[in-house]
TrEMBL record:
InterPro entries: A-crystallin/Hsp20_dom, ACD_IbpA/B, HSP20-like_chaperone. Keywords: Stress response. Belongs to the small heat shock protein (HSP20) family. This is Heat-shock protein. Residues 30-141 form the SHSP domain. It comes from the Bacteria. It comes from Aliidiomarina haloalkalitolerans. SUPFAM superfamilies: HSP20-like chaperones (SSF49764).
Length: 148
């Protein structure tokens, strides 16, 4: 596997530790729970996103969503199964899971809903006014000098 030397990044920047960690995890293929449960990430508009996770068989009481320090964590823990059931074949996964998503700066979770076995988590990116691009007026001082 190829490795990337991030030393030049550390020499000329401050505060990018999280970015380097995300790159390192992505290159290692660190997915945590493999491909379970499957999910989609969709851009629904310029600053709105939806994460959809297939959680068939889970109820809202068995799911937990938390955001801490820019990481969205979704956990599912099945309640105790009925011991009287005698499965001939059990193809529906009922195992616990934990799925993490790194959120960019200023991305906030606004809502979540469980419908038809799909957990939809809605996110919005709200850039503060102080960080938005603004136009700076340019003064023409040449015109003032010619009048002297």
């Amino acid at each position: 596997m190829n490795t990337i030397d991030l030393t030049p990044l550390y020499r000329s920047s401050v505060g990018f530790d999280r970015l380097a960690s995300m790159l390192d995890n992505a290159l290692r293929g660190d997915t945590g729970t493999g491909g379970y449960p499957p999910y989609n990430i969709e851009a629904t508009s310029e600053n709105r996103y939806t994460i959809t996770i297939a959680v068939a068989g889970f109820t809202d009481n068995e799911l937990d969503i938390q955001v801490e320090r820019g990481v969205l964590t979704v956990r599912g823990k099945k309640a105790a199964e009925d011991k009287d059931r005698n499965y001939l074949y059990q193809g529906i996964a009922a195992r616990s899971f934990e799925r993490k998503f790194n959120l960019a700066e200023h991305v906030e979770v606004t809502d979540a809903e469980l419908k038809n076995g799909l957990l939809n988590i809605y996110l919005v990116k709200e850039i503060p006014e102080a960080m938005k691009a603004r136009s700076i007026a340019i003064k023409n001082t040449d015109a003032l000098e010619y009048k002297k």
